[in-house]
């Protein structure tokens, strides 16, 4: 298992996800989206795993202008805009190889163990 947790240090759900894996002694890599975002390949892999770009966007993100703009763009434009503005991603994004979840999803993570 190669778990990656993408999120920010201030995100409550990201902290809960880290605690979930620590309590089960599952090694994971934390990537702070505020410091280092996802690569194009990582974002593409997560997009495929979660069923589309819309599942990645946090409708309650602070940057409501970008969230609103994403609703009017074509899928390719949405992907590029999300790659540039990763602060509107729903957190945490948890990857395990080709599998991924968005948000706090311990029910799915249990199946990975």
UniProtKB/TrEMBL annotation:
<comment type="similarity">
    <text>Belongs to the ArsC family.</text>
</comment>
<dbReference type="InterPro" id="IPR006660">
    <property type="entry name" value="Arsenate_reductase-like"/>
</dbReference>
<dbReference type="InterPro" id="IPR036249">
    <property type="entry name" value="Thioredoxin-like_sf"/>
</dbReference>
<protein>
    <submittedName>
        <fullName>ArsC family transcriptional regulator</fullName>
    </submittedName>
</protein>
């Amino acid at each position: 298992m190669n778990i990656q947790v993408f999120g920010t240090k201030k995100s409550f759900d990201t902290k809960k996800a880290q605690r979930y894996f620590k309590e089960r002694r599952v090694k994971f890599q934390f990537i702070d989206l505020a410091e280092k975002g996802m690569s194009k390949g990582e974002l593409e892999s997560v997009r495929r795993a979660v069923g589309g770009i819309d599942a990645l966007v946090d409708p309650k993100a602070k940057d409501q202008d970008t969230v609103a703009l994403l609703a009017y763009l074509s899928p390719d434009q949405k992907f590029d805009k999300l790659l540039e503005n990763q602060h509107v991603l729903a957190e945490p994004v948890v990857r395990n190889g080709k599998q991924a979840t968005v948000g706090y999803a311990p029910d799915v993570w249990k199946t990975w163990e």
